[in-house]
Amino acid sequence: MKDNRQNHNSSFIDGVWIDSSSSEPFAVRDPGDTRKVVATYLTAGEEETLNAVAAVKRAFGAWATTPASDRAQYVYALIDLWRDRIEEVARTATSEMGKPLRESRSEATRAIVEMRYWAAEALHLGDRTFESTRPNTVAYTIRQPIGPVAAITPWNFPILTPLRKVIPALVCGCTVILKPAVQAPGPSVLIAEMLEKVQLPKGVFNLIVGSGRSVGGILTANPDIAGISFTGSTQVGLAIERVAADRNAKVQLEMGGKNAAVVADYSNIDHAAKEIVNAAFTTSGQRCTSVSRVIVLKEQQKELEAALKRYAEERKVGHGLDEESEMGPVSNDEQMEKVEHYISLARNGEGHIITGGHRSSEEGYYFEPTIVTDVRPDSPLATEEIFGPVLTVVPVKDFEEAVSANNGTVYGLTSAIFTDRMEFAHQFTMRSEAGMVHVNHGTSSEGHLPFGGWKQSGQGAFGIGDTSKEFFTNLKAVYRMNPAG
Ligand code: NAP
Asked: I need a labelling partner for 76 at 20 to 30 A (CA). Which of 32, 325, 426, 461 fits?
């Protein structure tokens, strides 16, 4: 069988693998050893992107009127193929973006749970009925697919994020163009291969491997694309929102975060430290839900720091494909530079490094799990998204200061509190300006709950759970009178 990751047929448009001729091959390097090229892709350009738009437009009418339960059968068929390819999908993700294999396996396995959830949603796309105030009248709302959509995804969850958009879109009756990040398109290529095998009608699903600035921009601005479901940085998300607003296209934006864990009067410091270190250093801190600051009441600062340091130092850093690794490299040069920039701020008076703080290899993008303490709530280290293995500790004098520090960033994705006091747990839940709140629990989410952010972390319907249907469908209110009674 042809390997679509190693030849030029990287994009899948209108049921055909495309031999793009518009650019030089793009080489993805192993973040754990940048001397190695792990895959090459010939990226698509404007011509291929416009062909994909024409394909989703052509395919939409028939797909939208296919019964939702029939659409879901393709998802069940995909799940059957997926089970046998979990290891391949996981290895592909790890080799391109660097996270430990155990994390990629868990991402690929969880994909089955989420795909099953969404296939079952096909029978729940109905809406509500209402009592009418008029005689012989029934009133109800229905949901209809919004049209062809673009799904634009980042490299940090290269398996689940594309599926979290493509599967609900298909079940809801939208046709889709998926544009994954060029850094890690491999899992999306495998998704496309499997969707080809299950014989999804041509044009219903299309894959464009190409750079965001060129092909992403074309998709966002195109009047035939009814909605853009985007996951990525706030900067790019807001730019997409501005372009989409000009033509009132729908957006679902899942963007950056600067998630805090507050520790306030909590007796089980060891439990808090374990949960926080996991939430901080999984995927080398490159998850939108990573905890990147701990806000702690001063009385518990020393005890918490000692436990955080112990757990951080236990983490085994190594190549993602090494079964023993618990933390891989950061994913690319840009991430490395960003981490080094914030560490230099720490060294120049913004905090004290209590563990880590160094790049640990020149061949790969390895950086030690790092904890910086005594950071002011308004320091760039405490307010800007670092997206790397750097946890900052912000000591505060009381609970009020903790809430204010928690809310003191432009982001509002997720937040956590560790406390024994019911009034703190309740107050924090109600006052945290974030789309998700965790009590005595790290910031990981579950595959059937709505997932999204407030402020500059999100816009539009929450994703992952059943709320995605609010994005992929439009609501229509129907009044039906039968004058004959
Ligand atoms: P990014 O740079 O914003 O890129 C995300 C996607 O947008 C990529 O496919 C990128 O393409 C594309 N893109 C770039 N410029 C574009 C443009 N002008 N128009 C249309 N598309 C464009 O983000 P990233 O570095 O891949 O991912 C890290 C960020 O994602 C972090 O900020 C993280 O917090 C966020 N994130 C958020 C969530 C969430 O659910 N809230 C989840 C995961 C990650 P190319 O890269 O191929 O050029």
From this structure: 461
